[in-house]
Amino acid sequence: MNQKYSQNEIISIFFSIGRKPLKNWKQNVKGGQIKRITDEDLKSIVLEIKSNCIENTYLTYPSNSSISLSIHLPYLILFIKNLRKFFSFEIEILDDRNAKRRFRASNYTKKTKITEFMCNLPMKLDVGWNQIQFNLVEFTQKAFKTKYVETISLKVHANCRLRRIFFSNKLYEDDELPDDFKIIDPKEKQKKSFDIHQRRVSFSKKIQRRMKLMIEKKNQIEKENQIQNQNQNQNQNQNQNQNQNQNQNQNQNQNQNQNQNQNQNQNQNQNQNQNQNQNINQNQNQNQNQNQNQNQNQNQNQNQNQNQNQIENQIEN
């Protein structure tokens, strides 16, 4: 959404003074109110968000949830007034793993809670006006061990009064900011008799130690899972090798059986051929014998005939 604008130093996304302070913001109001009023301390117009149920009354930027803010600046600054009631805000960011993650800071959360995509943070506010400073790069690194890329969206819940919300490339001192980015106009500063409290949302040392233990435990679990996966893969490979060996043995046995069957069939065929040849030879011998007998008989008959003829001739003579 803001890619076309320069992101060198400061980008403002809300200012309570102006004709359309909630341009590009989406309002959700159930059982509460969002309206502009004149703050008694600033003597200036601010936006008040109030509700008995903070989850049902809030502002979202940008109004279109399908569009990303695409702001790459690392610091989020909010000028808000503590109304001594429950209050929270949420930031959705994109990291270098292309994962969308959320931070929720609130004055009713007692302990930091971190999950894979969500980080809940306790936030202490002073009475009156506070400047909240949120280091997106540091929080993304410490909470998720990834690198901050850009802010996608921002949600501000009841109960608070808003003066200004902006992103910056660093934390500026009050005298370094442009006049309209200061919570008190320099011309009116001498007339104001209250303090602006700077509240930097940060991890305490105790929380940092707890996070370190959580990360170490998470890494240990990941290592154990890796070892389990490696063992499972090894077992799978062993099973595959065993199955392959079994299949090879089965194939060898099948081939041996096939060869044996082929040899048996060949032997049977040879025996059948031999028998057939023997039968043919026997038949041929029988035929030869029959022919010889026939020839002998014919010769005998011829001899008999000749003898008879000789006898007849003798008689006649």
Give an overview in words.
The chain has helices at residues 136-144, 205-316; strands at residues 10-15, 26-28, 32-39, 44-51, 58-61, 75-82, 88-95, 100-106, 113-114, 118-122, 128-135, 148-157, 160-168, 197-201. It contains two helices and 14 strands, in the order E-E-E-E-E-E-E-E-E-E-E-H-E-E-E-H. The chain folds into two domains: 10-203, Jelly Rolls; 204-283. The strands form two sheets. Strands 1, 3, 4, 6, 11, 13 and 14 form a seven-stranded mixed beta sheet that branches. It has a seven-stranded mixed beta sheet with strand order 2-5-12-7-8-10-9. The longest helix is centred in the C-terminal third of the chain and has 112 residues, at 205-316. The mean pLDDT is 84. It is rod-shaped, with a radius of gyration of 52 Å. It is of the alpha+beta class and 317 residues long. 38% of the residues lie in helices and 29% in strands.
Question: What is the secondary structure topology, with strand pairs?
Answer:
Elements: E1 10-15, E2 26-28, E3 32-39, E4 44-51, E5 58-61, E6 75-82, E7 88-95, E8 100-106, E9 113-114, E10 118-122, E11 128-135, H1 136-144, E12 148-157, E13 160-168, E14 197-201, H2 205-316
Parallel strand pairs: 8-10, 11-14
Antiparallel strand pairs: 1-13, 2-5, 3-4, 4-13, 5-12, 6-11, 6-13, 7-8, 7-12, 9-10
